[in-house]
Amino acid sequence: MGAQETVPSVRRTTGEDSGEDRRGGHDGVRDREIRGEQQHLDAVYRRLEEKIHEAEFLMADAAKRAQVGTPGALAERDAQVFRAGVHLNRLNSEFEDFLFGRVDLLLGKDGERGPDGAYTSVEPADDAVRPDNTADIAETLHIGRLGVLDADYTPLVIDWRAPAAAPFYRATPVAPGRVVRRRVIRSRGRKVLGVEDDLLRPELTAHLDGEELAVVGDGALMAALGRARGHSMRDIVASIQAEQDEVIRAPAVSVTEVEGGPGTGKTAVALHRAAYLLYQDRRRYAGGILIVSPTPLLVSYTEGVLPSLGEEGQVAIRALGSLVEGAEADTYDEQAVARIKGSSRMVKVLRRAVRGTLDLGAPGSDGVPESLRVVALGARIELDAEELRRIRAQALGGTAPVNLLRPRARRLLLDALWRKSGAGRRYTDPELEAEARQGFDEDVSTETDFTGFLDAWWPELTPRRVLAAMGDERRLGRWSRRVLQPREARRLARSLSRLDADGSGPLSVHDVALLDELRVLLGTPARPRVKEADPLDQLTGLEELTTYADRLAARPARADRRAEERADYAHVIVDEAQDLTPMQWRMVGRRGRQATWTVVGDPAQSSWSDPEEAAAARDEALGARPRRRFELTVNYRNPAEIAELSARVLALAMPGVRPPRAVRSTGLVPRFAVASGGGLGEAVREEARRLLDEVEGTVGVVVAMGRREEARAWLDGLGDRVVPLGSLEAKGLEYDATLVVSPAEIADESPAGLRVLYVALTRATQRLTVLSGERDLPDGDGVPDLLRE
Ligand SMILES: Nc1ncnc2c1ncn2[C@@H]1O[C@H](COP(=O)(O)OP(=O)(O)OP(=O)(O)O)[C@@H](O)[C@H]1O
């Protein structure tokens, strides 16, 4: 079903009802309805095949033109091949599960048609319903992943993002508009497998082509929610709910904020919104859409959704640890260190660290000569420590980033050497003097004495190098004085001391935001760009240098690279926004300075210990732009039995916050187990095995972060349906069944531990087992202290 989150509010004709002949359980009716949809799908495929032939013909025709051989014909051919290829590609890739919805509509208020061929009116005409509550269906629309027009321009399929498709998602029994019946069609390949209907105007007796409208099935939403989960997320185009649809189609002005509890579809909505925005204004979003996800696990979980919606190239989904080119991090610091690295106090520390690292090159420091000596104009010229100090101070007088000050420092050194050589006094003609000076500069600046000195005295710093310099406890103590407490500085230095002096070595996710800040503080000197040969350019000439297939194959790689290099996006979507630290907000903010934003999150799931500081940083990143807020209120993931248990932890973590309402109940209450004689590992293995037997799909085993390695070993050999996870890694993911190991350990791991536990308890779509360890103080029923009513 499409809109409206609660199925029970829609009247469904059942076996006991008088409407026997309209009933879903009646196999004859069901078969007839499926046959009808099959005929429509066949017609759609015939039309798609015609389109494919058209595209192929265009390509063949273009190839013939190439044989004519004039440059004009070649260029024309190329353009045709390109268009046909794009068309073919799209058609082929979107063939699967192509058509999924249908609405049957009353006559509309006016007769205007939109660009997709459908009538535009939302409200029914005054005489659409007769006084005896009967009506005729005036229009039937099929909704799919891509719009298809018949040869005579009547719509065979409407793109799900088109305005005409909105009633499929928006109509509710309270506000049905023109919609009498909404149908979800399930198909595999070219075969229709089933239909699920909702009747939005149950009071009406509606006729279509002289026959009473039939209603079939138990509702598509329930069917979708009950299905087993795999390792990747699926799109929800067939069952987007009304409150979700409002967010997806909200105009992209400034900032759209979406809040909602676990399982309310925030991530799904964010992804569908990206596809919608591209559809609705492709030109505007050619600048790219960035989706920021908290973890690489969530990135790979969600990656398939946009391609399934027909959108790829323009959207980059990046984990927080992968936003900076050349840095790829997926490990986490312990919470106390992460808190320091994430705090906005780091901006000051990093500023000082940049200056401090540069000063490591001051004369007298390790490996830096006290003076600069060069041989020029046949004489030795020397600048002593005091002169060098003055030049350094003068160069640093500028406000530009230190790497950009390096050319200035170099020039000041050359000026001083020239003055000292006394050569300037020999010239009265300024032109001759300038010429001599130029020769002097060229000679000196290519001398290894000079270049070697400059590299030591004013090195071009890399962000990694500065970060590595902060790994020295004494130094960092100086640079962070009165900003960090000495204990914090020691912790931070210890964490960064893993890096080698040049900064190579493993980075944590929180280091990446520091690197990005340093990149800005240091500045990137301009470098000459090597122009990449574009195969498309080559084809405007006479020679056929590449085939079309080559170019098609080369295109994705180029598009990828472009996305990586891009630093500023047209729209930025932040998922799990409650978890960004102030430093991460600064990093993400830099990627969308001109962008519109969609920010989705749930404060109750925040694993950041100081939500107020993070909120302030978010405000800074988003600036004074106006914000439009939406709330999602229905939990589609957890059955009521699991939602009820997790609500107990929510009440402890965030007193007064209301959990979202679960839409379904399975009758399966969570299981409580207690580790006994054999120890925690054995109990985990046993409980995981039990869950694997009970569900078809995936089992997530959530342990405290400190137990991740152990958990991997415990579960070894149980197959890839079972996934061990540290509590922070579970964010955003879901499993058919979840085993939460020792709630007390998870809750005690950080100041935000209760919220992290709430996240862990809300991952399951079917079954939940809670396993108590020593610290959980389980009662006689095995219920741990934290989960008792
Ligand atoms: N309208 C819908 N139709 C079918 N399934 C839906 C719908 N909305 C959400 N779901 C499903 O509910 C589950 C939860 O969705 P999603 O992960 O987007 O929620 P979330 O709000 O991001 O959760 P969390 O805050 O826990 O990360 C997913 O399996 C999603 O496919």
UniProtKB/TrEMBL annotation:
Domain of life: Bacteria
Pfam families with a match to the protein in the record: UvrD-helicase (PF00580)
Domain UvrD-like helicase ATP-binding: 239-639
Annotated stretches, region: Disordered: 1-36
Compositional bias per record (Basic and acidic residues), positions renumbered to this chain: 20-36
Alphabetical keyword list: ATP-binding, Helicase, Hydrolase, Nucleotide-binding
InterPro entries (UniProt xref): DNA_helicase_UvrD/REP, P-loop_NTPase, UvrD-like_ATP-bd
Residues involved in ATP binding: G260, G261, P262, G263, T264, G265, K266, T267
Protein name per Swiss-Prot or TrEMBL: AAA family ATPase
Organism this protein belongs to: Streptomyces glaucosporus
